[in-house]
Write a structure and sequence with these properties.
Helices cover about 40% and strands about 20% of the residues. The protein is an alpha+beta fold.
Length: about 425
């Protein structure tokens, strides 16, 4: 497929690599091949002459499309990683550089005097060798940015940074009564709003990367980049699972862990679902109709920011669906670095979502920015441990994070059940 270099020049300048574009082009080529093979498969089924080779070809192309999508995500994340150094006002810059130098001395050689002096000066509480030391602001913000890129739910949810262990948020579940009146008509007193207090406790999440003394002594190694890169994947995987299916005990409460009810009987405190009408499967006739029902189960104010969340296997199934005009409902990213879409809504792949099975909630759709809240407590701490795994030095890195549903009307499920 020919590539129009001139048309893409502005986007290359914006930070998208040529490799990402090439990967995107390959994905588009694979999708065309997938559509052709799937059309042949469907035609064979209509003739009641199913072809095992066609089924295998479609499955193989499906797998190749998933691999290309993951590769695009990796390249986009790599291109989006900013430098840790940022311009600052002279006073703040001096303090930041002082903290950075003291932290590097602690990580490389275990010298903690500089960090102790800085944290005493800043009147920090609990900053001691037993609890670890706060990382410089550059590393903390870098870890936060990378987590948002790697963790699928964090990238679409609302995020609030707090300084306490628990974040409490009042939420109006029913507004005050209102009405129209004439210019001189009496104004009766309105009913008071109904409020619900939502509580989001933070729990400790940790990673423990290891380094050799040779690596720490190598002045060419950027300790900031090394630490951020080492902890990002471990933290992202753990919190990503918790945001989807966590039970709320010493971890965030995932949206799958809340009570669910048929959307026709929805009440505050539960998440609504739309049934497929078939236990553990899609309807045999017009299976995509249930996706339309799911989209319109969400109110218009939420629907305009709607996002589909499902795992890879479920996405492979919906990739085969067409509308009445024969157009595929699933479409690959329009540009390198974008998201695939389903019925024009973005699709987020979260492997912690359940596979299609009887009674499973395999697809979520909603405005996750308003529906799910992630609470980050300020501060990432590092405790250097040169004793437990000699000759390696362990870095016990902790952050506190919580999460839960904040608007029960903003997220809906597709449930694979008969009713």
């Amino acid at each position: 497929m020919d590539i129009d270099i001139n048309a893409r020049a502005p986007e290359i300048k914006a930070g998208i690599s040529g490799e990402a574009y090439a990967t995107h082009e390959e994905m588009m080529r694979l999708f065309e091949a997938f559509k052709q093979a799937n059309d042949e498969r469907l035609a064979a089924l209509e003739r009641r002459s199913g072809d095992a080779l066609l089924e295998e070809k479609v499955a193989r192309l499906n797998t190749a499309l998933d691999a290309q999508a993951r590769r695009i995500d990796e390249l986009t994340l790599k291109a989006a990683r900013p430098a840790l150094e940022r311009d600052r006002a002279s006073g703040d810059r001096f303090a930041a550089e002082e903290h950075k130098a003291a932290f590097e001395a602690y990580v490389r050689r275990g010298e903690s005097a500089g960090l102790r002096q800085l944290e005493v000066k800043a009147m920090s509480v609990g900053s001691n060798p037993d609890g670890g030391y706060l990382v410089p602001a550059e590393i903390e913000s870098e870890i936060g940015r990378r987590l948002a890129s790697v963790s699928p739910i964090r990238s679409i949810a609302g995020v609030r940074e707090v300084s306490a262990n628990v974040y409490k948020k009042p939420f109006m579940t029913a507004g005050p009564a209102v009405g129209w009146v004439g210019e001189t008509a009496p104004r009766p007193q309105t009913n008071t709003p109904a409020l619900d207090e939502l509580s989001f406790p933070t729990a400790e999440l940790y990673a423990m990367p290891a380094a050799t003394s040779t690596l720490l002594e190598d002045a060419a190694v950027n300790i900031d980049e090394w630490l951020a890169a080492e902890v990002e994947q471990a933290l992202a995987e753990q919190e990503g699972t918790a945001f989807v299916a966590g039970d709320g005990v010493n971890k965030p409460k995932g949206f799958l862990s809340y009570p669910t009810v048929d959307n026709a009987a929805w009440t505050w405190g539960s998440l609504g679902y739309v049934a497929t009408g078939v236990a553990g499967d899609w309807p045999e006739s017009n299976p995509s109709d249930v996706l339309i029902d799911l989209v319109y189960a969400l109110r218009a104010g939420y629907r305009q920011n709607g996002v589909f969340v499902m795992n890879r296997k479920t996405q492979a199934a919906v990739r085969k669906f067409k509308d009445a005009s024969g157009n595929y409902l699933w479409q690959p990213p329009a540009v390198a670095g974008g998201r695939a879409s389903l019925m024009t809504f973005p699709v987020v792949e979260a492997e912690d979502m359940p596979d299609v099975a009887p009674g499973s909630l395999s697809i979520a759709f909603g405005d996750f920015r308003r529906g799910y809240l992630i609470v980050d407590r300020q501060g990432v701490r590092v405790l250097r441990d040169p004793y437990s795994a000699k000759p390696y030095v362990l870095f016990y890195t902790t952050k506190r994070v919580g999460g839960g549903v904040q608007d029960f009307d903003a997220i809906k499920f597709l449930k694979f059940t008969a009713a």
